[in-house]
Amino acid sequence: MNLLVNYELFLAKIITFIMIIAAIVIFFCSFRKRKNNTKSNLKITLLKDNYQDIKNNVLLSTMENFEKKIWIKKEKEKNKEKKKEILKNKEKYFKNKKKILYIIDFKGGLYAKEVIGLREEISAILSVANKNDEVLLRLESSGGVIHGYGLAASQLNRLRQKGIRLIVSVDKIAASGGYMMACVADYIVSAPFAIIGSIGVVGQIPNFHKLLKKCNIDVELHTAGDYKRTLTMFGHNTDLTRKKFCEELNSTHELFKNFIKEMRPSLDIETVSNGEHWFGTMALEKKLVDEINTSDDILTSKMKEYTLLSIQYVYPKKIIERFTSSISHNFSKILLKMFLNKNYF
């Protein structure tokens, strides 16, 4: 019995020691990788290659083994001939080189933190793009804080100021701050049932004053300036502070409306700025969007004329996140093997 206990203690020590060594190795590898990776967090993907790989995989899956060998051999010969042709006519090749369609994605949260990546992506595009090139933004956002989405719209406006055509595609939703971003585009495409609009401003705050008063708890709030604080969570809100709060909402709404009117002059702003939202087909009738389509159809229609280049900012993970994600991944693999061995599937 003592031998078994001692063995278990020895095994626990060995496992603990291995885990500590693994943690130290992961820490130093992550530190070294971060140090070497300080130059850029941008992931650049040539989408033509992705689409071609998918097409090839589908074709190959329908073939017998001997057909696959013949097909692969023919494709290699085609690629060799294509390279030879390019080398022979270098000047002609570079002269007739396709325009570039840069593809970026923005899936915005309440605080528009994704604007960090958007800024980097747009700066990268502006550093290399020609005036004939275009940008496609696949946008998905239900809006959020005013300053966050205001900055996101300003980032997109950088493309407009440089004369680079911007297309915004909305497959699911572009409402409130999301639509503020969309309206910067030269051309807005919406899926039939995407949610569009919600041009309005909302502000809400809970108030615990009555509850605190019932519990004999006082909250003191002192301000230098009459409107340093309007509505508060714990103090007594007056009609005067409520009125001021509503005035601020209305003035923000006016700024919102003026911005959209400037970006889309053809839009009858007064009829669409009551905070209401519409589905894509209805939004087209109200001129909130320019076309009903999906981002996938836009990409396939542009493939012949443009080189499709995806620009994606990769957010760096913290060391602890990398460590925990690695552990969870390995643990799930072990569990999967156990289930498979026991014929659970």
Describe this entry's structure for a reader:
By secondary structure, the protein is an alpha/beta fold. Among the domains are: 98-194 and 276-313, 2-enoyl-CoA Hydratase, Chain A, domain 1; 199-273, no CATH class. Helix content is 54%, strand content 16%. The protein contains 13 helices and nine strands. It has helices at 2-36, 47-61, 65-88, 90-95, 115-128, 146-161, 177-182, 209-214, 239-263, 269-272, 280-285, 295-302, 319-341; strands at residues 42-46, 99-108, 134-141, 165-175, 187-190, 195-197, 277-279, 291-292, 306-313. Strands 1, 2, 3, 4, 5, 6, 7, 8 and 9 form a nine-stranded mixed β-sheet that branches. Strand 2 (99-108), helix 5 and strand 3 form a beta-alpha-beta unit. Helix 5 (115-128) packs parallel to helix 6. The longest helix has 35 residues, at 2-36. The relative contact order is 0.12. Residues 338-345 have low confidence and may be disordered.
Give the CATH level 1 class of the domain at 98-194 and 276-313.
Answer: Alpha Beta
Termini Cα gap: 39 Å
C-alpha geometry:
flat
CATH homology superfamily of the domain at 98-194 and 276-313? 2-enoyl-CoA Hydratase, Chain A, domain 1
What's the overall average pLDDT, rounded? 84
Q: What order do the helices and strands follow?
A: HEHHHEHEHEHEEHHHEHEHEH
| CATH hierarchy: architecture of the domain at 98-194 and 276-313 | Alpha-Beta Complex
Number of DSSP strands? Answer: 9
Segments where pLDDT lies below 50 for 5+ residues? Answer: 338-345
Number of helices: 13
Radius of gyration using CA atoms only: 28 Å
